User: Which sequence fits this backbone?
């Protein structure tokens, strides 16, 4: 089966917000979530209103808002970071502003659709060749697709690494198609080589990853009582075929020329009311991903389900448990974390096609997301590696 990879348009920025400042920065979070608010009482010529990264119907090409027990993390188009978040951060006290991080590097986003790949395979298919090429990534699994954030400066290195891996590049260099062969080794390319050469194979990469975790005191842990559900929102313009994971077109009323570009005409306002309600209550865990091609994807604390009613679809009977890795002591340019952790679990747990494994990268943390039973087994594998080292 094939994995299809596409470069999304635009450059994106990663923002870390400490939980103690979540309430102070909730307003810009909601402004980004609700992009139509930028046009209210604003001059059309005002530069701060000409924000990029939106489709013709004023929806985000890509947006991720994640609230976890460790932090709030936002991935948004760079114009939204500079025009919406930075002014609010500048209004904070110097001590408060210093705790918020807007990453200096800009990122590009790769959308991954793994037709026929099991969940673990989707994670490994892209993280493996990029890790072996020494390219740092952030990985976000959603209900429909997976997304990989890579520094914009690494674009050519990404193309070379994926090409070496067997991915076939389209003529416009914006799409890849590859056979499922993540066991093969990729060549190493990097515009900014790390201090040591990239690992030569997956096993060496795993060893380096866990050695680094030990040196930086990174320990895996679960948040007591936290159970997650993975859902999709019912969007007016794109309803999801939940079981086939395919999008289908649906009929809707005829739109006038004016309301074709109206944000509210193209989304389920009830769903967005539920999302705002969940964000306002400062959830223990909620990761929302919006893209131009998929309905909204929501990975959230099970206790939030009553807020959403029937505005979502998905298997809400299945519980997932996140295993958190606090990466605050690691630099953002570190490589191999996703592939090293996921690869070790895939091998040691002998995961099959029916196994569920997702990964969520936030600004300063990572979370391996597994079923309840799998998470217990995974912790039993990870803790000895970090507490005692490999024998």
Assistant:
């Amino acid at each position: 089966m094939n994995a299809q990879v596409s470069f999304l348009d635009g450059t994106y920025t990663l923002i870390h917000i400490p939980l103690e400042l979540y309430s102070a920065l909730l307003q810009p979070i909601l402004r980004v979530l609700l992009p139509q608010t930028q046009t209210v009482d604003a001059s059309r010529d005002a530069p701060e209103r000409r924000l990029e990264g939106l489709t013709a119907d004023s929806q985000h090409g890509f947006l991720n808002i994640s609230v976890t027990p460790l932090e709030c993390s936002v991935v948004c188009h760079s114009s939204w970071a500079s025009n919406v978040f930075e002014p609010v951060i500048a209004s904070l006290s110097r001590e408060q502003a210093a705790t918020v991080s807007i990453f200096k590097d800009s990122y590009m986003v790769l959308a991954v659709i793994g037709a026929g790949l099991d969940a673990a395979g989707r994670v490994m298919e892209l993280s493996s060749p990029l890790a072996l090429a020494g390219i740092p990534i952030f990985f976000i699994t959603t209900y429909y697709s997976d997304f990989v954030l890579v520094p914009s400066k690494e674009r050519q290195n990404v193309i070379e690494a994926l090409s070496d891996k067997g991915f076939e590049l389209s003529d416009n260099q914006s799409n890849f198609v590859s056979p499922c062969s993540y066991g093969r080794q990729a060549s190493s390319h990097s515009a900014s080589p790390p201090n040591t050469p990239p690992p030569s194979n997956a096993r060496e990469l795993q060893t380096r990853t866990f050695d680094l975790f030990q040196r930086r005191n990174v320990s895996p842990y679960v948040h007591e009582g936290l159970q997650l559900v993975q859902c999709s929102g019912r969007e007016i313009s794109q309803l999801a075929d939940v079981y086939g994971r395919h999008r289908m077109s649906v009929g809707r009323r005829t739109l006038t020329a004016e309301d074709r570009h109206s944000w509210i005409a193209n989304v389920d306002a009830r769903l967005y009311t539920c999302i705002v309600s969940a964000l306002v209550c400062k959830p223990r865990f909620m990761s929302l991903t919006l893209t131009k091609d998929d309905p909204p994807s929501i990975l959230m604390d099970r206790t939030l389900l009553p807020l959403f009613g029937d505005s979502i679809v998905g298997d809400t009977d299945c519980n997932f448990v996140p295993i958190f890795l606090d990466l605050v002591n690691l630099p953002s340019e570190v490589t191999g974390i996703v592939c090293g952790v996921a690869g070790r679990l895939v091998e040691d747990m002998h995961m099959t096609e029916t196994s569920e494994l997702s990964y969520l990268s936030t600004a300063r943390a990572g979370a391996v997301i597994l079923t309840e039973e799998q998470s217990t087994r995974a912790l039993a594998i990870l803790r000895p590696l970090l507490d005692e080292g490999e024998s």
Notes: DSSP finds ten helices and 20 strands in the chain. The longest strand covers residues 107-114. The radius of gyration is 20 Å.
